[in-house]
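Continuing the batch. This is chain 6 of the set; chains 1 through 5 are on the previous pages. Same settings as before, nothing changed between runs. Recording input and output for traceability.
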Amino acid sequence: MKKIGITTTVPIEVLLAAGYQPVDLNNVFITDPSPERLVYIAERAGFPLNCCSWIKGIYGACMEHKIDTVLCVTTGDCSNTIMLMEVLKLKEINVVPFAYPDKPDSQRMQHALQALAETLKISLDAAEQVRAELASCRRLALKLDELTWREGLVSGFENHLWLVSASDFNQDHHKYYQELQELLAQCQQRQPYPSEWLKLAYIGVPSVYGQDLYPYLENNGARVVFNEIQRQFAMPQPGDSLAEQYSNYTYPYSIYDRLKDITAELKKRHIDGVIHYVQAFCHRGIGDIIFRDVIKLPILTLEGNDDFFLTHHLKTRIEAFLDMLQRSRRRAKIVEEV
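Output for chain 6:
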């Protein structure tokens, strides 16, 4: 299948039906042995230092892996993608724009999907058939999520990795299904994490610290049992059609649509504290104001750029946050006993 780069989670069912293999360029970037090298490729091409590292990493991944077609999301993700799209055109890369509706409405989504299908010269019926085929992968990913928070058998990083990979199913949904099935069988044989460990939620875009953050939390007696946006990539509310599925997908829409999902999951999963990750130079960081007003739990806001590993300063902040949560839990227990 011909590869098509994607700049975020998109209706890959349409792309697969059109004979393309979606490649999430974010995942290609962040899993590269040297992601800073991909950032440097973009900076050498003229991208400014105060531009988001993910945008630069996507550009570097395109150049490095010779991706010649990219679907760019122009509404519902990152405003910088619009100018990235123009630069890709300059480099003679074929660009396919896609815009999520400004609000979650299945009729408007149907029009957006129809326009994309017409651009790729396929019918939406063919894409609906692919949707049915991918449903088993999505159910398995959500089963992993359930084993994370309900059974305590899956680590926060495993949860993050397999859910975030649902954006393109690691470029091979058959292999993804098989490998995840094998992992779930292994998880069933594990001993659960200690019940006294802190339960954390991670909200915001996936972090540049992914491989460092989750193990560090677990080394300090805490684990992430809710990865907000990563879980959305697995489409937890699939609906009865592609239009419903991508209307129920919260990430492209208002922060208040996201908060409905977040607050429900915080309560259901008995969360002790929240980590909100914001990317440097990203407009979504302003949403921290709203999260802190609405979410009635302690929140630690972490900002990342292009360092890719936790600094000593960030580790100290994380340790102080976890210590505060532990002390708060002990006080609550004493009050309960009295």
